[in-house]
Structure formats: C-alpha cells, structure tokens
Specification:
Elements (H helix, E strand, L loop, with lengths): L2 E9 L6 H13 L4 E9 L6 H7 L3 E4 L6 H10 L5 E4 L11 H6 L5 E7 H4 L6 H18 L11 E4 H5 L10 H11 L3 E6 L14 H19 L10
Parallel strand pairs: 1-2, 1-4, 2-3, 5-7
Antiparallel strand pairs: 4-6, 5-6
Helix pairs in contact: 6-9, 8-9
The chain binds guanosine-5'-diphosphate (GDP) and magnesium ion.
Guanosine-5'-diphosphate binds next to strand 1 and helix 3.
Length: 238
C-alpha cells in the first residue's frame, strides 16, 4: 500500500497566490510515485475568493470558523487530515512544491519531522531584521530544547502523523512551528533539515509581524522547556 500524504495549506486572503501554488502542487504530486496525496486548504474567513480558487483546483477546502490564526487554521487542517505523513506549506507561493520529494526522502526510520532550511536553500524574502530574528530564535530553541537547527521557523515542514496524534496542540499563531519541534523531540523522534529555497511572497499582504510573533516564538520556546522540566503540565493526549 502506498503511503498517504496530507498537504495542509493555511490561507487567509491569498486569492492572488493560491491558484499558482495549487497548480505547481498538482503538477508535482502527479509526478511522484509510491505515494497518494490529499490537498487541504484551510480558509480563514477570507474576504476574497481564496476558497473558490482552491476548490476549482481540486483542493479540499475547510473553513476555520473559530478565531483566526495560522496555528488554529493548521490545527483544523491536521484534525481533518487522513494521511500518514503531513506536509504544511504556505499559500503565498514562497514555498516550492518541487521540493516535496526531498522532504519525503528524508523520512528514514527514526525521523519524525523534516524542516526546509532557508539557511541552506536561501531566501528572497529575508530582511536583516527577519534573518537576525530567525537566527536568534533558532539558537534559543537549541539552547532550551537541546536540538541545534539552522532554521526552526520555516513554515515548510513534513512530519509523521504520530507527532500530531500523540499530543494536544494549543498554538494559535505562528508559534506552532516551535510546538511541532518540541513534540517531535518529546516523542523520541529526530528532527532533520533539508535545503529549501524561499521565494518572496507573490502578492497580497504578509500576516506575520516581527515583534509580535517573535515574542510569541520566544515565549513558546520557554514554555516548552518548562514543560520538559515538569514545571508545566504535560500536553500528551491520554
Ligand atoms: N488560515 C489562515 N492562514 C493564515 C493566517 N495567518 C497567516 N496565514 C497563512 O500562513 C502562511 C504564512 O503567512 P505569511 O503572512 O506569508 O507570513 P510569513 O511567515 O511571514 O511568510 C500564509 O499561507 C498565510 O495565508 C490566519 O489567520 N489564518
Ligand atoms: Mg509568507
């Protein structure tokens, strides 16, 4: 039986980009053998045609009817995903679907999570502030959680279903990147990186804010560390 892969794309007001993202994705997955795929777009009360554009390209569109946020949207998407491997990628055309085979090939026996690294692959979107923030936060994650990576924060990730199923996730926004890494390590699985090139967002407005979300990343790193030390209650599913 081929492995089933669920690709989950959080999208808020991305009508300018999501069509091209899904065109590339559909072309890529059609050429990959040995796996079956489902594509889920989680639309979050978009005021444009994100949902319609996605459905027209064959994606399963799920609406996040609760409060908005990338983390909340991804949680809704994973909850509805039926694959054994989950991939998350952005709707703004910054992640390259052609790299997906590289992520899938990285799943050796004990690998739980694969991260696309912009340090190896380069980024067209990095400002100095963003680059510094990413290096600082990725270093802080290494110090607190004991796994030194090059690019913890990239939203292009693939992970085993058990990394999702074994825990109750609570992230509302972008800090879900940290929660995924912490839970993979907690499960005793390894986190590896593959080279990934980030394009600049094609159109529309970015939703992340350096200070607001940078602070959330840091607080999340510290709270995951406290959880490891037993200072916070466990988030494992009973
Ligand atoms: N569904 C949903 N998606 C979101 C939300 N905020 C951000 N995203 C999506 O998350 C991805 C990354 O967001 P982006 O604004 O490009 O931030 P970046 O991380 O700075 O590149 C994009 O696909 C966005 O559409 C949200 O509140 N709801
Ligand atoms: Mg982006």
């Amino acid at each position: 039986m081929p492995h089933k892969v669920s690709i989950v794309i959080p999208a808020k007001n991305e009508e300018m980009n999501i069509g091209l993202v899904l065109d590339d994705l559909n072309k890529t997955i059609a050429a990959i053998s040995g796996y079956t795929f489902e594509v889920i777009v989680v639309d979050d009360k978009s005021s444009d045609h994100t949902g319609e554009v996605s459905a027209a390209r064959g994606a399963k569109v799920i609406r996040n009817t609760g409060p908005s946020g990338k983390g909340r949207a991804l949680r809704v998407g994973f909850e509805n995903a039926t694959g054994e491997i989950f991939i998350m990628m952005d709707a703004d055309y910054s992640h390259r679907a052609e790299e997906i085979p590289r992520f899938l090939e990285a799943f050796q026996s004990n690998v739980g999570l694969v991260i696309g690294s912009r340090i190896f692959g380069g980024s067209d979107e990095y400002t100095r502030v963003r680059a510094f923030g990413n290096i600082f936060l990725t270093g802080a994650l290494g110090m607190f959680l004991g796994r030194y990576l090059s690019d913890a924060l990239n939203g292009f990730k693939a992970f085993r279903r058990e990394v999702w199923d074994s825990f109750h996730y609570t992230s509302s926004t972008f800090e879900i990147e940290i929660e995924l890494i912490a839970n993979t390590l907690r499960k005793g699985l390894s986190v590896v990186e593959v080279s990934s090139h980030e394009r600049a967002r094609l159109g529309g407005e970015p939703k992340s804010r350096v200070v607001r979300h940078g602070t959330r990343f840091l607080l999340r790193i510290i709270s995951e560390w406290m959880r490891n030390k037993g200072m916070l209650s466990s988030n494992a599913k009973s």
